[in-house]
UniProtKB/TrEMBL annotation:
Its cofactor is FAD. Belongs to the GMC oxidoreductase family. It comes from the Eukaryota. This is GMC oxidoreductase-domain-containing protein. The keyword Amino-acid biosynthesis does not apply. It holds the Pfam family GMC_oxred_N. GO terms for molecular function: flavin adenine dinucleotide binding; oxidoreductase activity, acting on CH-OH group of donors.
Length: 617
């Protein structure tokens, strides 16, 4: 029988919540803790799991039609299961530049600078991908390794990057928070010994599941926070089609991710008042009133400041006989899986023990690049990059892609429509820091109504020139890779028939010193159109309940307290005051560790134990 009275309730049991709840439960096993999740599925140990039949581990959100993208509606998914993003993500290990965290501190958040957060990043991990130096951890819960298989595309990338005249230097460690404009191998959140995904559910929460005071209610969705006056006292949630309530004596923590956390704040807060049916929310007054919701705390920043990153796939032909199978296994069908699964289960190695993203480059424009980028990029350079040598603008990696258009190609491979058994396409990933921000708001007080999401993708000319430059740069590198066999025109801009940039098939790579492709103005226009038609959002939303001063559109203070109310915190990627230029799992783990320390201190728990997690799954 699950009790209805708790000390702490988490609305959401994703990455950050698992860290905080796991740490607190370990530190004080008398704390009565509850977390909700919409779906319980066994978190995917590798990507193949996620495509198995059964409840969907994703929620798909649709953004408003975007004018800069020609009216296109972008789709972006977030996780819907215990462990959140950590249970479904692509397992790329990519830490943010130190100066991104210093920017958090300078936004009015003492205790949130790089010097404060980097030690937490070390405590999070057991680094198995090289030397454990002063920047890496050796005994944290989350394992980081190169996985159990090395792809040819990764090896070829490293060789081409070493010889490419416009290339950069090699580094053993792309993730020391400082080094930038270098290339190297890309580690993964995979345990080197077991070959399994290192998610927050398995390594923070489940190790505490023996604790009778820790409860995870699955197939439940937090609906709204219950208030007594301005003090949060519990949660109302849906389970089995009916509404239930649970009381939180000490704290309610909203941890529903950057899309859903602002929605829970805005939607409606149940207030014990002389008018029990009145609806009250936390957010922008004008927006809440539009939905007939009274205002408990007027916070216009709720749902604003939606930041993220952009992604683009384009398609060179690459020759990788064995990895065709890998790609098919992960993306389309299970036909080849049995042998790989047996290997993976026996020794944690093979094609199921990798994410297929083995090498990459963190690109930062140099003098020659800045000339190419032109005056449209000057403001971005001056505001974001010039004084922060650790910041890069693009992470280029060549992967066995799961992008939409490349999956179409994979289908062709499966159905024999490809030009040869030994050739198929793969798409490099592009990640960009964008300065523009969008918003996420409720459309109605009904918890089941989709959210209104507006992105600022490609609204600024800076993003357009940046994507154009990066396309040219990474295409040049791809042409020099040993596995290169030309390009698939449908996965590239529509260059004119007489263009030098026209896509062609090839028998092999160009010479490492071959002249670069010369692009005309018409080619540039074609590239920009291609980007408008194909750019996508990466799964890294953040910033929608920003930790900033209230007058600067902040939602939470540096202790993660929601302004204007008591006993209510937010802890997840939504609190990011500004963008981080990296994949976000690492930052979510850091926020979780920081939140655990803050809450423990407030509750008088002296030691948020960091020694309990040495477990294997
Ligand atoms: C498909 C995908 C691929 C990714 N790949 C990478 C990668 O390779 N590397 C990397 O570093 N990062 C990656 N990320 C990003 C990273 O995983 C996330 O940034 C991180 O997990 C976010 O943590 P969070 O705690 O903010 O939110 P989440 O982990 O998303 O947790 C929020 C949780 O709240 C739950 N929730 C929502 N609404 C409610 C409600 N009303 N009631 C109860 N629960 C609710 C959700 O189900 C979810 O589990 C990826 C993310 C996705 C989705």
């Amino acid at each position: 029988m699950i009790p209805t009275d708790y000390d702490i309730i988490f609305a959401g049991g994703g990455t950050t919540a698992c860290v905080v709840a796991g740490r607190l439960a370990a530190a004080d096993n008398t704390l009565r803790i509850l977390a909700y999740e919409p779906l319980h599925v066994q978190p995917g140990r590798y990507l193949f799991d996620l495509r198995a039949p059964g409840p969907d581990v994703f929620t798909v959100h649709h953004a408003n039609p975007s004018a800069p993208l020609g009216g296109r509606i972008l789709r972006v998914s977030s996780a819907s299961c215990v462990g959140g993003g950590s249970s479904v993500n692509a397992m790329m290990y990519n830490r943010a530049p130190a100066s991104d965290y210093d920017a958090w501190m300078h936004a009015g958040n003492p205790g949130w600078g790089a010097a404060d957060l980097i030690p937490l990043a070390k405590e999070v991990e057991t680094y198995q991908a090289g030397v454990v130096d002063s920047m890496h951890g050796s005994c944290g819960p989350i394992k980081v390794s190169y996985g159990g298989y090395e792809t040819k595309v990764g090896r070829d990338f490293l060789v081409a990057a070493a010889g490419f005249p416009r290339g950069r230097h090699f580094t053993e460690d792309l993730n020391d928070f400082v080094t930038c404009d270098v290339y190297g191998r890309l580690p993964k959140y995979i345990d080197a010994e077991t070959g399994r995904r290192s998610d927050a559910a398995h390594f923070y929460l489940y190790p505490q599941i023996h604790n009778p005071n820790l409860h995870i209610i699955t197939e439940a969705r937090a609906n709204r926070v219950i208030f007594n006056g301005t003090r949060a006292v519990g949660i109302e949630y849906y389970a089995n089609g009916t509404l239930h309530t649970a009381a939180a004596a000490r704290l309610v923590v909203i941890s529903a991710g950057a899309f859903c956390s602002p929605a829970i704040l805005e939607r409606q807060v149940k207030v014990f008042s002389p008018h029990p049916r009145s609806r009250s929310g936390i957010g922008a007054k004008h927006l809440l009133e539009k939905h007939g919701v009274q205002v408990v705390s007027d916070l216009p920043g709720v749902g604003q400041n939606y930041g993220g990153r952009m992604k683009l796939h384009w398609l060179p032909w690459l020759w990788m006989k064995t990895e065709v199978r890998y790609l098919i296994v992960h993306s389309i069908t299970f036909i080849f899986c049995a042998a790989f699964e047996a290997e993976w289960k026996t020794n944690g190695r093979g094609l199921l023990a990798t994410n297929g993203i083995d090498a990459g480059i963190k690109l930062r424009p140099n003098g020659q690049d800045l000339e190419q980028l032109g005056p449209a990029f000057t403001k971005r350079w001056e505001t974001l990059l010039a004084d922060a040598p650790d910041r890069y603008v693009a992470l280029e990696s060549y992967e066995n892609s799961t992008g939409r258009s490349s999956r179409d190609i994979q289908r062709s491979v499966l159905h024999g429509a490809c030009r040869s058994d030994n050739h198929f396409n793969t798409g490099p990933t592009r990640c960009r820091c964008t300065l523009s921000t969008g918003f996420v708001h409720i459309c109605s007080v009904d918890a089941h109504t989709p959210l209104e999401i507006t992105t600022a993708l490609l609204e600024s000319e800076e993003d357009i020139v940046l994507l154009r430059w990066a396309y040219k740069w990474s295409r040049e590198l791809a042409r020099r890779m040993d596995c290169y066999r030309g390009e698939h025109a449908a996965g590239h801009p529509a260059f004119g028939a007489d263009s030098q940039a026209l896509c062609r098939e090839a028998e092999g790579p160009v010479d490492i010193n071959a002249p670069e492709i010369l692009y005309s103005m018409a080619d540039d226009t074609a590239i920009d159109s291609f980007h408008r038609a194909n750019v996508a959002l990466i799964f890294h939303p953040m910033g929608t309940c920003a930790m900033k001063p209230r007058e600067a559109f902040g939602v939470v203070d540096p202790s993660l307290n929601v302004y204007g109310v008591q006993n209510l915190k937010v802890a997840d990627m939504s609190i990011a005051p500004s963008n981080v230029g990296a994949n976000t799992y690492n930052t979510a783990l850091i926020i979780g560790e920081k939140a655990a320390s803050i809450i423990a201190a407030e509750l008088g728990i002296r030691d948020v134990s960091r020694r309990w997690y040495n477990c294997r799954v």
